[in-house]
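Task card 7
Instruction: Convert sequence to structure tokens.
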Amino acid sequence: MMENSPAKEKKEIRRQMLIKRDSLNVEERRRAAVLLTERILGHQWYYRSAVLLAFASYGSEIDTGEIIREALKQGKKVYLPRVMSAEPEQEEFYMDFFRIFNMDELRPGYRGIPEPSPESEKYVYHREEAPDTLMLMPGVAFDRYRNRIGYGKGFYDNYLQDKEGLQLRTIGVGFQCQLAEQLPCDERDIRPYQVICV
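Output:
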């Protein structure tokens, strides 16, 4: 089957952006993590939220560890994503969020990404509680129109599809080098409500 051109374009952007992100040095990463932590902890959505849906940084992703630790210290309920298999022995995967009380609970899961235990409390979406929730979204690339390119599996797009209230409380986070002028998108792509690249 021929790859359609938006998918091809996204693949190429993903490749280029990952090269840029991988080439950042330790000091650039450290500085960006400090800036991101300040921006998120000072954000009114964070301040007002009782629940944080975050992600544990993996590979060359921007470091979210301090944000997660601070949220736990402040008594917020923190949930991190875990990729689950729809059927044993099948290649169909979906994502759910499970509560953590400590970063030490995380174990390498899907593709080696640090994940919470599936035995923990699962996040359940309730529309009326969405204003008290903040979701941080990883990504490979973002643009000035809040479009996002992820890793190509559609986990966040699928997860947010039927959660309109939560869509209004999402922030895509990354490094400044991940910001593009304009990205290709299609109707299934869900844009973060804000983008913070530092």
